[in-house]
Amino acid sequence: MAGLALAPPRVRSLSPVLPVVAVVSLLALPVAPGGEGGAGPADALSALMVLYCAVRLVRDRRRPLSRPAAVVLGMPVVGLAVAAVGAVSPGAGLSGMGRYLQVFVLVPAAVLLLIRDRADFRLLAWSFVALAGWQGAVGVHQYVTRTGASYQGEPVRAVGTFGAQDVMGMSTVVAFGLVCAVGLALGRTPVRHRAVAAVCAVALLLPLALSFSRGAWIATAVALAAQLALAGLRRALKVAAVVAATGVILVGGLGIGTAMLQERISSIGQVADAPDQSVTDRYTMWAAATGMWREQPLAGVGLKGFPEHRDAHASLALSAGSDTEGAGAGFLRQPLLSPHNMYLLILAEQGLIGLVALVGGWLALLVCAVRRLVRVRAAGPGTDCGLVACGLLVWQLTDFVYADIGGPSTVLTAVCLGLVAWWALAPGAEEAAAR
């Protein structure tokens, strides 16, 4: 009996999602100035994470995926295989297929399999909030000290550690963290946890505003509106009042970036009547992508084929490239190699086959995630996980109208899809949320 009394308490084993947390954490490291913004350390670690997941499956003799999960996550492979065959070169086809498989198939499947319960899910959600807090703090410092990326000739654009070559990186990270924080704050967890999440959400509004990213603003507004609607009308009104008051204080009362922010916000309504050069370039590339699809409607022009066919379909309104400067990097003109619209990029390079496979899978995830959230919401526990998953997916689907994959932050898209897939498709997710 004495031996039993002296026995140490049983310690919960380390969470298998820690490698995923490590992938997220690597995005806090600075990107080398002047880099091309391609695959980075986080992408390399994500490959090791997939390998780690495969080893666990073999060791534990587990069934890899349920049938619905295998179908939804495996759908893009068909379109990718067809588009890889039609690529301009075998190397382009293989590298393009590898990138798509990483972002939309392998990493999401690994994240799904590594999450055990809602505690693991929340750990990943909080890692997103922590990364957003770090990048946001760096971005605010850049704005205050005028060491950010160039915006209207002034070095004030908050870009975090991603640098001027990836101006969308920080806004994406901060937006993901904000969506996670709002979902955690709207759940039925202890009051202390919800209060911390709410404070984080309010704090992340400032760096998101100072990113001057119109696409991120729109996607965040849509995602937060969806989360509030799914959480219930009473909570939606309370949170909307807090966000509105915070915005008035930050912009109106403190005068933070008032003139630039007002001009940037007003430009959202002018994208059709009086577009600036960046919007004109985007419209021109959208038209070019549509032209490519008309020539090859079923299979597209092949993976990584947009740059090769761009000039043959673009009008003279397209500029030579976008100018970047600041945040530790010199002046650089970046070529326009994608239409900055994920749906049109898929349509141009993979045709209708690829579009139906990829977008069909995303819509299936959204339907399953919302249905599970509606079922769990009445019970209470687990609502925060559902709100985070639905918010992340709505944000990504909205942002894809203005952006596509590319840059170091792309690996976060893969992790987000894995979180959503666990909530929407894991057989035990609903039961884990109810406990």
Strand content: under 5%
Overall SS class: mainly alpha
Uncertain ranges: 1-11
**Total domain count:** 1
Question: Care to count the β-strands?
Answer: 4
Discrete helix count: 18
Ends: how far apart?
A: 33 Å
Report on the structure:
By secondary structure, the protein is mostly helical. The protein has one domain (75-277, 333-434). Helix content is 68%, strand content 4%. It has 18 helices and four strands. It has helices spanning 2-6, 18-26, 41-60, 67-74, 76-85, 90-114, 118-145, 167-185, 191-210, 214-231, 233-253, 258-268, 277-295, 306-313, 342-377, 383-399, 410-425, 429-434; strands at residues 149-151, 154-157, 322-326, 329-334. The strands form two sheets. It has a two-stranded antiparallel sheet with strand order 1-2. It has a two-stranded antiparallel ribbon with strand order 3-4. The chain is globular and about 60 Å long. The two termini are 33 Å apart.
Q: What's the arrangement of secondary structure elements?
A:
Layout: H1 2-6, H2 18-26, H3 41-60, H4 67-74, H5 76-85, H6 90-114, H7 118-145, E1 149-151, E2 154-157, H8 167-185, H9 191-210, H10 214-231, H11 233-253, H12 258-268, H13 277-295, H14 306-313, E3 322-326, E4 329-334, H15 342-377, H16 383-399, H17 410-425, H18 429-434
Antiparallel strand pairs: 1-2, 3-4
